[in-house]
Amino acid sequence: MARLAEAFSGYYGDFSLAAADAGLSASQAKTLGVLRAAPASMRVLATTLACDASNITGIVDRLEKRDLVRREVSPNDRRVKNVVLTPTGEETVDAIRARMNATHAALDALDDADRATLYELLGRVFCGARGPGTTA
Question: Do 62 and 52 contact (CB within 8 A), yes or no?
Fold first, then answer.
């Protein structure tokens, strides 16, 4: 557990600095990362990000003002609004990920086989219950 805490702390610090360089809070940047995988309703965002729905409203409002996301009516239920990443939002996510220098350096220190093993283990440990590819 201590090693996981240390690893996640390093990752989160790197992520937070990269988000700040883009003028975003870590929560705003994490929201963009979730939306990079697929549009999501406000409720799904709140669940995925483990925060109150009122917090998601504020986060999405601020992202929308910067043209990083937009709200669209769900094609499945007109009462539901989906949050969709804009092209500017996609560029911002990519820029944040590219700025994560400490994380890139750590991963670059691994050979291809070790990176593949790490990927598989992280998926097995953290995505197994929610399914592969789940972003949080």
Answer: no
